[in-house]
Amino acid sequence: MKNIKSYVQENKQRFLDELIELLKIPSISADSAYKQDTINTADAVAKSLKEAGCDVVEICETEGYPIIYAHKIIDKDLPTVLVYGHYDVQPPDPLNLWTSPPFEPVIKTTDLHPEGAIFARGACDDKGQMYMHVKAMEFMTKNNTLPCNVKFMIEGEEEVGSVNLGKFVKQNQDKLSNDVILISDTGMIAQDTPSITTGLRGLSYVEVEVTGPNRDLHSGLYGGAVANPINVLTKMIASLHDDNNHITIPGFYDNVEELSLDERAQMAKAPFSLDKYKAALDIDAVYGEEGYTTNERNSIRPTLDVNGIWGGYTGEGAKTVIASQAFAKISMRLVPNQDWENITDLFKNHFESIAPKGVKVKVTPHHGGQGYVTPIDSVGYQAASKAYQETFGKTPIPQRSGGSIPIVSLFEQELKSKTILMGFGLDSDAIHSPNEHFGVWNYLKGIETIPYFYKYFTEMHK
Ligand code: BES
Ligand code: MN
Ligand code: MN
User: Fold this and answer.
1) How close are the terminal C-alpha atoms of the chain, in Å?
2) Residue 153 is inside which H or E element, if any?
3) Which of 222, 261, 390, 455 is most buried, judging by how many CB atoms fall within 10 Å of its CB?
4) How confident is residue 2, by pLDDT bands cut at 50, 70 and 90?
5) By the 8 A CB rule, do 369 and 337 touch?
6) Are 68 and 45 contacting, i.e. CB atoms less than 8 angstroms apart?
7) Contacts of 46 by beta carbon, 8 Å cutoff, 6+ apart
8) Tell me: the pLDDT tens digits for 140-182?
9) Ligand 1 within 6 A of CB of 125
10) Closest C-alpha residue for ligand 1 atom 18
11) Centroid of ligand 2 to alpha carbon of 255 (angstroms)
12) Would you say the CB of residue 404 lies under 6 angstroms from ligand 1?
């Protein structure tokens, strides 16, 4: 595959221009105001897969946004790689914190990306990383180096829980049959430290509502005499962690997979600087569960975090009021063996049980999914490892990530195949935050590395 490097160099500008066009379409799946844009993005992805040499490209309608399915089957006796990605993006707010508009992509240099990075919502998560696969496909079909069968499944609802994709997978097991699933929707340790993600956390996402008096009240006339829903909610939330930052929900840790000291020692070998970590976030100390390191806290341990909290008066100036209601959105990141539906039930029962008299509490589950871990001795992992060795000159480090892609465990359950997570973004690329970006170097390196995965996977697959 000598010419992949030169192919990338020759087509670099076009690869960037095409991605920039895709990034201009605001495919915000969470916000119905962007419905037409999201549908247009699906069409653009379908078109790009056709141009990249897929023989069949289908826009599969669902109750939500369409799923793009495409394939090129060259020989039924050869293995099949299924590529998954998502074309939807997170909402860009708060808009005022962006240094350039989220859907007007620009290339700017940063300390970590001296060769430039594309700034736009979705640049890294996941349009940029998904498009690397489209361009790698283009290279393989144009240069007659495609060694196996390829299927693509690109969805538009990952950021809102992949509900319709779950149904689609269950109903289309034959269509989606494969020997390995390949995803670029995670990160790597650093530019000079490639890594392969071997674990994802599960997720349970709930919304809670505390209702006190039947109307907002004057905080002088009634304050101190009735339960204030905001006071109550914050106290209830505070009680969900103890002084060691352990979660207090009974049964929460029952099924948590405990890593051996040896496994934890292996993990600790991954390069990591606590000082750089703190400096990058402008914090003077890290915070978290007693007895675990930062990298353990954010990957192998479960967590509970408030993602948003509201109620009462938040406008300009002061208004003396006791709100009738208070609300919060809470996410729990889960680790292998914790079942998200069970954890959701435990949360609901516990949260309702700790409500003081004088308020009503309602817990509404949103979405969730199971965690995932994958061994490093599989053919898929080994093929990915060799691919990185080829293009980075280094053996990638296996690393469990703190993020979630709930559909991955469903893939394993329904399609009986392992997923290989070859992520090329950096944690500092600000996914889900203002000023999301994706290094030009990373984008091109991804395109260069992916064809080697196909080559080695096909060679090593018995
Ligand atoms: N691509 C991310 C997940 C991710 C990012 C995993 C970096 C590992 C490293 C994905 O798009 C995402 O944001 N997932 C959500 C869950 C989903 C159900 C909304 C998440 O992790 O919050
Ligand atoms: Mn993603
Ligand atoms: Mn995301």
Assistant:
1) 21
2) strand 149-155
3) 455
4) low
5) no
6) yes
7) 57, 58, 59, 68, 70
8) 999 999 999 999 999 999 999 999 999 999 999 999 999 999 9
9) yes
10) 161
11) 27
12) yes
Answering whether pTM is above 0.90, one says yes
- 36-65, pLDDT tens digit by residue? 999 999 999 999 999 999 999 999 999 999
> With a 6 A CB cut-off, is 126 part of the ligand 1 pocket?
yes
Report the separation in Å between the CA atom of 41 and the middle of ligand 2, taken as the mean of its atom positions.
Answer: 16
**How many CA atoms lie within 13 Å of 206's alpha carbon, on the beta-carbon side?**
25
List 202's β-bridge partners, or say none.
Answer: 334
Contact in structure between 122 and 431 (CB atoms under 8 Å):
no
Q: Is the pLDDT of residue 462 over 90?
A: no
CB 55 within 8 A of CB 73: yes
| Mean of the per-residue pLDDT values of the chain | 97
401 within ligand 1 shell (Cβ under 6 A): yes
- Partners of 326 in beta bridges: 210, 311
Which tokens in the block code for residue 457?
A: 């996977």
Q: Is the peptide bond before 94 cis (omega within 30 degrees of 0)?
A: yes
pLDDT digits (tens, 9 = 90+) for 357-409: 999 999 999 989 999 999 999 999 999 999 999 999 999 999 999 999 999 99
- Closest ligand 1 atom to residue 160 Cα is 19
Mean pLDDT value of segment 76-95: 97
Dist. CA 375–CA 68, nearest whole Å: 29
DSSP label at 210? E
- Rounded Cα distance between 202 and 336, Å, is 7
The amino acid that residue 319 corresponds to is: K
Q: Mean pLDDT, to the nearest integer, of 341-357?
A: 98
CA-based nearest residue to 399, from 257, 296, 303, 309: 296
Question: Going by CA atoms, what residue is nearest to atom 10 of ligand 1?
Answer: 405
DSSP for 15-65, please give it: HHHHHHHHHTS--BTT-GGGHHHHHHHHHHHHHHHHHTT-SEEEEE--SSS
Is residue 38 within 8 Å of residue 28, measured between CB atoms?
yes
- The answer to whether residues 388 and 449 touch, using CB atoms and an 8 Å cutoff, is yes
Q: Is 88 a pocket residue for ligand 1 (Cβ < 6 Å)?
A: no
Q: Do 287 and 279 contact (CB within 8 A), yes or no?
A: no
Give, as one character, the DSSP assignment of residue 338: -
